[in-house]
């Protein structure tokens, strides 16, 4: 039998750079409460959110994703032509084909890079990171551009006061490349397909049957997600740390999906994080940007000096599916 030749493999992969873009319109809790029956205090106490960012009409998932990616590319020192693949994690690209990745590749001049979208809901960036790591280690790519981007304001149901105040718009990007040292730990990931109805986007026929709707809207059973996150997700976060053969005390930073500060606090307690670990609270003035929340938070913490290059960070995403994915990474 003739053997198939495979490509030479790389030992490891690592994050080389990040970039981000936030929707430019600040929507405070006060403004939110002109749209829904609530109070700024209730929203802040229940979620930690004081304000969120909504994109303007001219800020699209393509433009925000491109801006974040361009910054990451500049900071990496690479040429666009060196990117072998682009993965875009999103649930906000409303044209099933071509992919958003293909549009962003064109904007960036990525030439013939492999380009595809990944629907991992709020775990999409961590799913994509795991995929990029595997692609590099098996020799399918040398450099992968990973983007998480959402425009959730378009899909927010302002008639549902129990979720409308959560969602926000933005993009985060990272360049992942080959490395001699491990820079991305084993992913702990999975899904709970018995919980499909817990968070869902309407399908297009339902949305388009209503003349008042431009986009499908998000529906979520907040309490059920909250309970699942506090138990299962907390356990998976601990597993991701153990799989990297480190202890929580070895971490410098904890950057979970920015869904609710109370979930972040419970998971941090479950992990028994010492005070030396900086916990990300980007949600406070950013809200929840689903697949974009983890890379936006990583980028901001690095830019503000709340985290440093070389730090060990635990990242974990969780959301519709229900899906989860987390890993320990070394920050670029
Ligand atoms: N203002 C005032 N009162 C409100 C509001 C509001 N905006 N919304 C609900 N309430 C009331 C309810 O009517 C209820 O009153 P009752 O007890 O008299 O019936 C009470 O507040 C509690 O309502 P809950 O919905 O149970 O509120 P909860 O404390 O669970 O907070 C929230 C809701 C913030 C959505 C929370 O459940 C949550 O964060 N869940 C997890 C969401 C999440 O992690 N999603 C992740 C994936 S999805 C994604 O990221 C895209």
TrEMBL record:
Reaction equation(s) it catalyzes: malonyl-[ACP] + acetyl-CoA + H(+) = 3-oxobutanoyl-[ACP] + CO2 + CoA
Name of the protein: Beta-ketoacyl-[acyl-carrier-protein] synthase III
Active-site residues from the entry: 122, 257, 288
Function noted in UniProt: Catalyzes the condensation reaction of fatty acid synthesis by the addition to an acyl acceptor of two carbons from malonyl-ACP. Catalyzes the first condensation reaction which initiates fatty acid synthesis and may therefore play a role in governing the total rate of fatty acid production. Possesses both acetoacetyl-ACP synthase and acetyl transacylase activities. Its substrate specificity determines the biosynthesis of branched-chain and/or straight-chain of fatty acids.
Principal cellular location given in the protein's record: cytoplasm
SUPFAM superfamilies attached to this UniProt entry: Thiolase-like (SSF53901)
Span list, region ACP-binding: 258-262
Keywords (A to Z) from UniProt: Acyltransferase, Cytoplasm, Fatty acid biosynthesis, Fatty acid metabolism, Lipid biosynthesis, Lipid metabolism, Multifunctional enzyme, Transferase
InterPro entries membership: ACP_syn_III_C, ACP_syn_III_N, FabH, Thiolase-like
The protein's enzyme class: transferase
